[in-house]
Amino acid sequence: MDSINQNQPELNRADLRGADAIKQAKELIDKAQTCFFCTGTTNGSVGTRPMSVQEVDDAGNLWFLSADDSHKNQELERDPNVTLYFQGSAHSDFLTLRGTVSISRDKEKIKQLWEPVVKTWFTEGVDDPRITVIRFASKDGYYWTTKHGKAIAGVKMLIGAAIGTTLDDSLEGQLLFA
Questions:
Q1: By the 8 A CB rule, do 92 and 98 touch?
Q2: Other beta carbons within 10 Å of 42
Q3: Full set of structural domains in the chain with CATH
């Protein structure tokens, strides 16, 4: 156990599995709505770009829309392993997910995920021939949030600073989806 956790008088760690992991991930994704979508590249570096999550389904899959001619799609064709990074607020609600993706041209799913703002990238609308659907299947992840919300977390930090005791309202842990 590292030193910060040794000073913590409250339980601040909870690893979650299955439905509990999916529920926690959905809550944090709803707060963040966008992520850094990280792929491997041919030169061994990481391709990173912001992406909006269109949907999180009940199985914990994340759904994105992407252009078939994008660098991202090219990178995914070579290596379907992806890491996603979310930040829901300045001081809380962090999430990292690792998983694999599949790419399709499922017209029904495209229509289901479509929002008018997406036309910025797909100028021909919902029937733009460049649109693909990316399904991200989560394998595992890590989260960091507060137990009681930002207001209580802030009050606890102020009290802890005043009395010289670690009163951290954070909760963190591993997420295992399989």
A1: no
A2: 10
A3: 3-176 (2.30.110.10)
